[in-house]
């Protein structure tokens, strides 16, 4: 059995075999499989008893400067792609909170970034996908060819076949630096007002929340916003190799508990001075967590759940106060918490998660049954507010919750590759 195949490090009871992808693979296989990227999904959307890895497959990348298009193999990581394209004056249109994910994984979960209000999710920029299916072989899918499979592969949780390469529209940049601002807020209402203002001037916005040091039932947080610096003289030179520290080992117990989180949050809140305008590299703005390799090990051998949902903006305020009530009644520890607003740009994937509203992503140490029961209470609250859960972060949502979150499930089902499945899909299909 392999460990650390998904980010939450939750105990896996089944044996898992990892096989190398090759072009003839599907002729030989009858047992269900799933393509695996970097295992940066938190739960079981990236797991199956048989995983197919493209890590040893050929990598390639080509930039069409005339049309600002990138064609590259799906096994490249965001980091590898940025290292190549940033010095040429380009950036990916959407990046997540870590650069250690593959392009294939980014498409299969139709990832969102801090710029949903200006750009939507990554699928909105994908021009075409080369997909290897076990039933019909290699196909190209885009808006004109195999359109249904195209819309099901974007956000398709790896179930429509193996993505071999993609072509995607790039964004032009003039600098490796970002101009950033930060401001503190002390209630959800304040967050929304601040965020609405920042959204007018900044391409990227994200909120960090402290849900453990509550004052009169209300939380505090810091809103960060930024733009790529547009200084023509500020050449897009190569960033020096970033310093990284590694979390050495998985401990038998979790270092993340109410006391440590209270201290960490207070420190973060104190260190984060309100700043009118500062300059920082794109890496420190987009990927601050990547500085500590394997920080997920701090949660110990039982791992942790990330719970990410979206609820429509019209319900967000009443939702958040009920949410805090449930949190207070249960002895769970909300650790790293990220709050964002999704804009109105629609995703094109049949199972894409992003949609207009407010999204919250919270890490909870796995305390066994009590955590599972608590998360079920949250499920009920999310669904009763017409919300949805994010499969990339999930390890336990029920079939019912999945169906309520993804009304296009039956359209999607028509495009599944018959040889593909995942632990996640076996639970919710
Ligand atoms: C610190 C951190 C921050 C994050 N921040 C964000 C964020 O801001 N926004 C966001 O949307 N997500 C975020 N995520 C989640 C992450 O971006 C997604 O889970 C992403 O899909 C992981 O990619 P991966 O390469 O690790 O793929 P895996 O986790 O290994 O797989 C994810 C899915 O992609 C499929 N897949 C992988 N490669 C292929 C392929 N070649 N062909 C077909 N299917 C494939 C798998 O079958 C699986 O269904 C974050 C994760 C971490 C750990």
Summarize the structure.
This protein is α+β, with helices and mostly antiparallel strands. It has a domain of 222 residues: Alpha-Beta Plaits (2-Layer Sandwich), CATH 3.30.70.2520.
What would you say this structure looks like, in words?
The protein is α+β, with helices and mostly antiparallel strands and 429 residues long. It has a domain at 177-398: Alpha-Beta Plaits (2-Layer Sandwich). Helix content is 26%, strand content 27%. The protein contains 13 helices and 20 strands. The protein has helices spanning 25-28, 78-85, 103-108, 116-119, 147-153, 188-201, 258-271, 282-286, 313-329, 369-384, 399-405, 409-413, 423-428, and strands at residues 17-20, 34-36, 50-53, 61-64, 69-73, 90-91, 126-133, 137-142, 162-169, 171-172, 177-185, 204-215, 218-228, 245-246, 275-281, 292-293, 304-311, 337-342, 357-365, 388-389. The chain has an 8-stranded antiparallel beta sheet. Strands 4-5-9-7-8 form a 5-stranded antiparallel beta sheet. Strand 4 (61-64) and strand 5 form a beta hairpin. Helix 9 (313-329) runs antiparallel to helix 10 (369-384). The protein is globular, with a radius of gyration of 21 Å. 47% of the residues are buried. The mean pLDDT is 92. The structure holds flavin-adenine dinucleotide. Flavin-adenine dinucleotide is lined by residues 7, 34-41, 45-46, 54, 74, 96-98, 101-102, 104-106, 108-109, 111-113, 157-158, 162-163, 289, 392.
